[in-house]
Amino acid sequence: MKYLDIDNWNRKQHFEHFRTLTDPTFGLVADVDVTKAYLSSKEKGNSFFVRYLHACMKAINAVENFKYRIEEDKIAIYDVINASPTIARKDNTFGFSYVLFSEDFEEFNHNFQQEKKRIENSTNLFPPKYSLGCIHCSAIPWVSFTGHKEPFSGNKNDSVPQLSFGKIKETNGKKILPVAINVNHALADGYHVGQFFQKFQQELDKID
Q1: Residue 144 in contact with residue 178, Cβ under 8 Å?
Q2: pLDDT, tens digit, for every residue of 36-92?
Q3: Region 131-150: what's the mean pLDDT?
Q4: Cβ neighbours, 10 Å, residue 195
């Protein structure tokens, strides 16, 4: 991990401006085509959620600004961004996980399954290990939403991106997944969110 040179950053004024706001976050919902990920998971017996989450994490790690985190008056740059998805239990509660990212799907899937097993055999809400070098995400497979709002802690330094994945809808023979994303505007703009969705779709289209 290293720190950003804020004084020479071309977004210095943007950073300083958005930090003055009561709530500096912004979010939106966009659709992605998960047809290949869905078919692949069914053919190979993999979890569909893990399949598209891996593609999502590859995209997250490909966008520089999504690796930035506000730490007091500094901006830390994390080398790798991991995943912290909510994982459901049989009693309809959930636990927060911390899944180490790997470019290799099988390794990432192994890491996810280990966390899933831990949560299913625990009543703890929080994982034993955690770092700001992650994203928070959850699946809401009961609703194909077009809008979404994340809880806000009130801490303007909160800068971990938050994502939610909705219920698949069928459109022209394709399986479409609504994806909500919420980011701190002090660190990222619509351009960076657009980069993420472009790279996410590219990763999904590579799946065989």
Answers
A1: yes
A2: 999 999 999 999 999 999 999 999 999 999 999 999 999 999 999 999 999 999 999
A3: 97
A4: 18
The tokens of 22 are what?
Answer: 């009561």
For residue 36, the domain's CATH number is 3.30.559.10
Indicate if the alpha-carbon torsion angle 80, 108, 57, 147 is positive or negative. Answer: negative
Mean pLDDT of the chain: 97
Pairing, β 2-3 against β 74-77:
antiparallel
* Per-residue tokens: 86: 């909510």
Q: Rounded to whole angstroms, how far apart are CA atoms 73 and 105?
A: 36
Q: What is the largest CA-CA distance in the chain?
A: 51
pTM listed for this prediction: 0.96
Q: How many domains, the chain? A: 1
Which tokens go with 165? Answer: 């994945």
User: How far apart, in Å, are the Cα atoms of 100 and each of 6, 110, 135?
Assistant: 28, 10, 11
Q: How far apart are CA 99 and CA 107, in angstroms?
A: 10
Confidence of residue 14 (pLDDT cuts 50, 70, 90): very high
User: How close are the terminal C-alpha atoms of the chain, in Å?
Assistant: 34
Residue 44's contacts (CB-CB under 8 Å, 6 or more residues apart) are none
**What are the tokens at 67?**
């690796």
Domain coverage including residue 190:
2-206
